């Protein structure tokens, strides 16, 4: 089941993991160290982030490094921009309507 | 277009909230009507070239509005709004869910909270939207993926037409 992106970034630890990964790709062990967390706990967070495609694994030798998926975050931001545009358009339409209605009531 | 009116749009991604604030150059009673009467909502409620069409609306606590967003090619996207709280002229809250043409709801939906206030003839409307899932928010854009140029052209035509009526 595809993980919901809002659930993924709703957790502060996961947000912190993402922030760290924007600086440099990391292995689960290093992540556990930095957050003073068990390897198990980190794996749970990684699973959620990976399921919604915010991070991607890449094999390097015997280790797996997780990379921040900038493209996914950009997709999310683009989508937000479009949502904002829709609202702007509707409100501009409402401006026109209110102007018309005001004219009608003062006649 | 009046560029002096406030328009704020913020999304708290972690809390799944969208915050919108917009000022309107009209009295509070008139703006309240524009947001709560079907015949007025249908005139501005969808970004052109989409249109909004209300099948029925009963604006009271427990009442509902059943309406559709119609795309230029005739596709209809239905939704139901259920009013959970109303304080005339200043506040109303509703639960919004997508639905099929027979009013069968698709959950989860979202919770909307509208606040109205006026100062010096300018009415401020603050809207808070709480969405349970991102996928649901994505659906809000279904059918809205039309070039911005097209939207702006249509808007200009609409405003010109409205001005000519005066």
Nutshell version of this structure?
Chain A has 107 residues and is mostly helical. Chain A contains five helices and two strands. Chain A has two domains: 5-68, Winged helix-like DNA-binding domain superfamily/Winged helix DNA-binding domain (Arc Repressor Mutant, subunit A); 70-107.
Structure write-up:
The complex is a heterodimer of chains A (107) and B (166). With 107 residues, chain A is mainly alpha-helical. Chain A is built from 5 helices and 2 strands, in the order H-H-H-H-E-E-H. Helices cover 70% and strands 11% of the residues of chain A. Chain A has a two-stranded antiparallel sheet. By secondary structure, chain B is of the alpha+beta class. Chain B has a single domain (7-165), classed as START domain (Alpha-D-Glucose-1,6-Bisphosphate, Chain A, domain 4). Chain B contains 4 helices and 8 strands. Chain B has helices spanning 28-36, 38-44, 134-139, 148-165, and strands spanning 7-12, 17-24, 51-57, 64-70, 76-87, 91-99, 105-119, 122-131.
List keywords for this structure.
heterodimer, A: 107 residues, mainly alpha, Arc Repressor Mutant, subunit A, two-stranded antiparallel ribbon, 5 helices, 2 strands, 70% helix, 11% strand, elongated, B: 166 residues, alpha+beta, Alpha-D-Glucose-1,6-Bisphosphate, Chain A, domain 4, eight-stranded antiparallel beta sheet, 8 strands, 45% strand
> What is the annotated CATH architecture of chain B?
2-Layer Sandwich
Q: Tally the helices of chain A.
A: 5
Name of the CATH architecture of the largest domain in chain A: Orthogonal Bundle
DSSP strand count of chain A: 2
CATH topology (fold) name of the largest domain in chain A:
Arc Repressor Mutant, subunit A
CATH class annotation of the largest domain in chain A: Mainly Alpha
What is the mean pLDDT of chain B?
Answer: 83
Shape of chain B: globular
Class from helix and strand fractions of chain A: mainly alpha
Q: Numbering strands along the chain, what is their spatial order in the largest sheet of chain B?
A: 1-2-8-7-6-5-4-3
Give the biggest beta sheet of chain B.
Answer: 8 strands, antiparallel
Counting structural domains of chain A, the number is 2
| Stretches with pLDDT under 50, minimum 5 residues of chain A | none
Identify the overall geometry of chain A: elongated
Highest CATH level, the class of chain B = Alpha Beta
- Percent range of helical residues of chain B: 10-25%
Pick out the low-confidence regions of chain B.
142-152
* CATH homologous superfamily label of chain B: START domain
